[in-house]
Design goal:
- The longest helix is centred in the N-terminal third of the chain and has 13 residues, at 13-25.
- The strands form seven sheets. This protein has a five-stranded parallel sheet, covered by helices on one side. Strands 10-17-11-12-13 form a five-stranded parallel sheet, with helices on one face.
- The radius of gyration is 23 Å and the shape is globular.
- A hairpin with a 3-residue loop joins strand 14 and strand 15 (217-222).
- Helix 1 packs parallel to helix 7.
- It is an alpha/beta fold and 448 residues long.
- Helix content is 24%, strand content 27%.
- It has helices at residues 13-25, 64-69, 130-140, 153-163, 185-197, 244-248, 295-307, 341-346, 396-408, 413-417, 435-447, and strands at residues 2-3, 6-9, 31-35, 72-75, 78-82, 87-90, 95-97, 100-103, 107-109, 123-124, 145-149, 168-173, 201-204, 208-213, 217-222, 227-229, 232-235, 239-241, 272-274, 281-282, 289-290, 324-329, 332-338, 351-359, 371-379, 385-392.
Length: 448
């Protein structure tokens, strides 16, 4: 029987960062990472293998960092966790004894049990499985009409990328707008218009009743009665936590189906931690149970777990999940961090908001200049920044991360107004018209 100090189950972002942090923090300890796949996909890059990249081989998480640190990689499937004796049993018949265990088993795409026709050929999901995704890519080449169900980030990005392959793509969304659960309406509408302009057929405010066909898909029936021709249907209806191992081992599972953890990523069992999509989360602003699943959040949790395996540190705990998302449609990018205005009001916050639209270069006539709009959501009582949304060019991804830092640090409106920034004509907006600061000024005028 193999014995290791630290065993990590799961090879995606959460598992990789857990193993690397554990080994970096505890260089004298042996660390093993067990994963099912020979090659692991970069989660956020999966949609782009269908258009921008054209293959999955250019979207692989490298093993170099793990190997350089001395982490042992084992390609196998864990069948059972025997927590009483600290042993994991493998599909290969091998057994591994551990001192500390980190569960990073991730999530799986939802395929509703009620779905009629879901068993037909050419009905797909988007898992983090290279072999499956390669097969989907190969089959897509023969399809003409592709329907994507679900217009969250994955659905939108997959639709846009398959559209680049020259396919007739239709996107079905039961909400009034695409990305409607992530952005306030005015921003969701702009993203929807941009996607339509790129040739995607969008049907919002309607779900679907069944997938029609005998052996394989030939159409899909919407809840409004319309029938749309389809050679393939891709379900992008969310993900559910992969907790079967943890549940069978007797670990506590919360009401939303996630492994229950504390602020140090500890489960209900001593010496077992859980991170990433399979682990429970609480919203940073409301304290309520959150169902957010993000690779960035998973990596933050993984670092917390790796740093707290053998001694707890109050400086290395996790204070709550901040949803920080960004996506790109053509030349325009969209980002959101924290609470939207609609969500904040629904949760009972009294808020004041402000928006400013400027240019991300100065002067605006410079090459590659792009409109940049920033919206801030601020607590009327405390002045704390609860959320932000951005529309702009390539800088959106980094700017929304900065807004995420601001929220986590507990910045108030005043803190932002007096913050010092660096600007450069080719890289940023003007210091006199910096949209992030100007949006704060708009709110200041409202509160005086």
């Amino acid at each position: 029987m193999k014995k290791v100090d630290i065993l990590v189950i799961g090879g995606s972002a959460a598992g990789l960062v857990s193993a690397m942090t554990s080994k970096s923090k505890n260089p004298d300890k042996s660390v093993m990472l067990i994963r099912k796949e020979e090659k692991v996909m970069i989660p956020c890059g999966i949609p782009y293998i269908y258009g921008s990249l054209g293959n999955s081989d250019d979207n692989i998480l490298p093993d170099g960092g793990l190997l350089q640190l001395g982490v042992e990689i084992k390609v196998d499937t864990v069948l059972k966790i025997q927590k009483e004796i600290k042993v994991c049993k493998m599909q290969s018949g091998d057994e591994v004894e551990y001192d500390k265990l980190i569960i990073a088993t991730g999530s799986m795409p939802v395929k509703p049990a009620w779905l009629k026709g879901g068993e037909l050929k050419n009905v797909f999901t988007i898992p983090k499985d290279k072999v499956y995704l390669d097969e989907l890519l190969a089959q897509l080449k023969a399809f003409k009409n592709v329907i994507v169900v679900g217009a969250g980030f994955i659905g939108v990005e997959v639709s846009d990328e398959i559209n680049k392959m020259g396919k007739n793509v239709s996107l079905i969304e039961i909400q009034p707008n695409i990305l409607g659960l992530a952005f306030d309406k005015e921003i969701a509408i702009e993203a929807e218009e941009k996607l339509r302009s790129r040739g995607i057929n969008i049907f919002t405010g309607t779900g679907f009743e069944e997938i029609i066909g005998t052996d394989k898909v030939n159409s899909i029936k919407l809840s409004n009665g319309d029938v749309k021709e389809a050679d393939a249907v891709i379900l992008s209806m969310g993900y559910r936590p992969n907790v079967s191992l943890a549940k069978e081992a007797g670990l506590s599972i919360n009401e939303k189906g996630f492994i229950t953890i504390d602020e140090y990523m500890r489960t209900s069992e001593a010496d077992i931690f859980a991170v990433g999509d399979c682990a429970s989360k609480r919203d940073f602003a409301t304290g309520k149970i959150s169902t957010i699943m993000l690779a960035s959040t998973a990596c933050a949790e993984a670092r917390v777990a790796g740093l707290n395996l053998y001694s707890l540190s109050t400086f290395r705990s996790f204070s709550g999940t901040i949803g920080i998302y960004s996506t790109n449609i053509g030349e325009t990018s969209y980002g959101v961090a924290g609470l939207t205005e609609e969500t904040a009001i629904r949760e009972g916050f009294k808020v004041v908001t402000g928006s400013f639209t400027g240019i991300d270069r100065h002067p605006g006539k410079l090459n590659n200049a792009h409109k940049q709009m920033v919206k801030l959501i601020v607590s009327k009582d405390s002045g704390k920044i609860l959320g932000g949304e951005v529309i702009g060019g390539n800088s959106v991804g980094e700017l929304i991360n900065v807004i995420g830092f601001i929220i986590q640090a507990g910045y108030t409106l005043t803190d932002l107004l007096v913050a010092q920034i660096g600007t450069q004509p080719m890289l940023t907006a003007s210091p006199a018209a910096y949209p992030l600061i100007k949006a704060a000024e708009v709110i200041l005028k409202k509160t005086n």
